[in-house]
């Protein structure tokens, strides 16, 4: 173990420069304690082969260098600042460049409508027949239509292409893009506003985007593009969360709600055909947690239908929206308890800083309702019984570090509870929640920030590999497909290691 | 940790019907609440009545914040909301509550700018302004280096055009408080620089012997007024001096402590006293450390009843890690009790972080801060096994740039796991906080569970005596006196007093 050997070197150094030496028993106790701790950490069980060991040395060379520089000059340490203030510095990092090229397995917690970057969304506004207007409170409304849409709107409907050609198209596009993202170049105005205000902005963006992408031809393009962005970030499999929306055609035809999962499945199949080293997509059907029992029941029934029709495409069910403001799981309990034999659950739970509140208690219900994985589980660290339970029942925690930072839970990511989850060796998978909204990589930023800002300075390639493996292990794939994913992953992993070995440590 | 109990509860997790479900849920929540700190305290009827009043106001505050997070102050910098604390009813109750002991405070950070500014009105104080503020008591202009001119403070003040402004400028040197903390203190580097500068400025003024004696006496008084009955004070033991330039060795400083404590106790019979933890700077070599340890042992010999033990201070990230001194510290471990600062850092996996390991292996009786402990499950196990008190200083950690939104402070996990926590205030004067009440308040309403109640507060107060360095007989006596004060607080409690 690299860690222990470093420590031993240190000891030898001390013993030789000092008249007094450290008693052997102390050294033994110390190594013993530290080793027990290292053995618990996520990734410690992995044994690296010779090539991996060499690659690890290169990786750790850069990691130690970056961290030591920050340690000496904490005023330049990015991760204690807002993500928006350092996001543009990330590509310069050697460690990031390595992680970017690393196969990362699966993304298990992402909301499909918020996967795609603002630039690509902007491209979709170049589609023909797109009309736009603004409602009373200045929110954008989109509608694809042959003629001027008949929907009432505060302003009149205009063709977006007409608007764009009226003046400076670049400026127009820039301002349009602002409706698709929280990121505006810096944290100005973001890092001091309260959590409800951030969420309001977030849900606004989410609404604008979903209006753009429920037009059937755009849905297809959008989803294919999104898969492509993820694929290019070295992701091999995705479980998307999505509400069931009614897609429509240019002539106004509206499809039923099962049309959308079918279309997603078909696009995923097409993408797979075009990219044989991509393993596929599954769907977790979601509903907003503010809805009534009746509305939620409807979606649960629809999810049952999706399951019947496309059993291998449906992963399960979840509730979404700001946990603090939404209904708690225990409030909807009878309904959820009744459906738990038909549907697997992947609940968001404990995405909050409010300890001892009903939001916080969602964690208990997520576990008691048999959730296969828990989204965020940010508050878990405050619940010793649940920490035991997730370990005992091997319930994976879907951690989204950048999301938690942007959505106002934590400022300095070194205070993120993930550090403790990694130290305890809990079943963690890293994901990215809504990377399009904050302009993050599909997954590489989350991996990089976790590796450099949250995990131990000594955590190495084994952690990264274990996180990738976990994303496969805790996916919903059946055994056969899991094997297929493992095999794609390992092939890519070997190529990746070879690539790292061509990097030098003295660039 | 309490693995067995919890696994039993979760066994056959999935309930068959709703009643069974809620029953199971209730039992798990209940068992978690019992595990948390204070969970085993039973309240008598009178206490239960006080608790109802306390929780009425706590729920009102917390639920208002939950519904209106833009008014939740504790996710911002302490300096931006400290003025609002005084209006809280929960705070006022906590102020009146006996809080036991303050076990982690540094002598020169005990009193705030108001008090320090008053000292500058004493005779024989010389001042010199260059990039820094230099202060020294003397009967003739001092010779110590300064780029400006030494003059008597009274003269400088009177010859300034504007005395109010002069004093306001002076006061700024005696506090870290600013109106725009995020601009002035963008990172831990700026905060610690300002923090160190504070000590460099005030030390020469405070270590004039008569001032030192008065200062410490008044500090004890101020703490007592905040309903604290006992202190363990960390000191670097500065060399005291006289007007004529006589400089004493640190042993005299220690003896001064003993004398002042004795005087104070004579004047305040219900005060339990104070002890001294010798805590010199950690950024030294082994030769210097040897001197420290020798001095510690001498003090112990001279005044074993006042001397509690040994510690090292200064920003942990920049100082020598404990491992550097292990041979020496281990050798002295049989003679000295250790109360090490450890893990006061956000840097996971660094040598600073490993101070936690060595502090525990060196047999520390308590750990100062232990902020990084949740990242070290095995050290945490040792803490439980050896029942090592954790001295948590919430406001200090916020002001000194470890955490911004206080709800992310690891204390919440410590409390949930029922770890042996004591609350303290580190250097309350430097950030103009109360001796202890504000730390208690913030921990109670913002760090602890919404559901934590009077039992937590009582347990924290009891812990502060339980984990003190008092010998067992004095401890029993201390707890008896605390109970007396506590019952007095409960008996005299009048909820309507806090109504407006
Ligand atoms: Zn999510
Ligand atoms: Zn301290």
UniProtKB/TrEMBL annotation, chain A:
Keywords: Hydrolase, Metal-binding, Secreted, Signal. InterPro entries: A_deaminase_dom, A_deaminase_N, ADGF, Ado/ade_deaminase, Metal_Hydrolase. Residues 199-487 form the Adenosine deaminase domain. GO terms for cellular component: extracellular space. It holds the Pfam family A_deaminase_N. The keyword Flavoprotein does not apply. Its main location: secreted. It is found in: Secreted. It comes from the Eukaryota. SUPFAM superfamilies: Metallo-dependent hydrolases. Its cofactor is Zn(2+). Belongs to the metallo-dependent hydrolases superfamily. Adenosine and AMP deaminases family. ADGF subfamily. This is Adenosine deaminase. The lineage of its organism: Eukaryota, Metazoa, Ecdysozoa, Arthropoda, Hexapoda.
Automatic annotation (TrEMBL), chain B:
Keywords: Hydrolase, Metal-binding, Secreted, Signal. Its cofactor is Zn(2+). It catalyses: adenosine + H2O + H(+) = inosine + NH4(+). It is an enzyme of class 3 (hydrolase). One of its GO terms (molecular function) is metal ion binding. GO terms for cellular component: extracellular space. Residues 1-15 form the signal peptide. GO terms for biological process: adenosine catabolic process; inosine biosynthetic process. Gene3D superfamilies: Metal-dependent hydrolases. Residues 190-475 form the Adenosine deaminase domain. Pfam families: A_deaminase, A_deaminase_N. It is found in: Secreted. InterPro entries: A_deaminase_dom, A_deaminase_N, ADGF, Ado/ade_deaminase, Metal_Hydrolase. Its EC number is 3.5.4.4. Residues 16-94 form the Adenosine/AMP deaminase N-terminal domain. NCBIfam families: adm_rel. PANTHER family: ADENOSINE DEAMINASE, ADENOSINE DEAMINASE 2. Belongs to the metallo-dependent hydrolases superfamily. Adenosine and AMP deaminases family. ADGF subfamily. This is Adenosine deaminase.
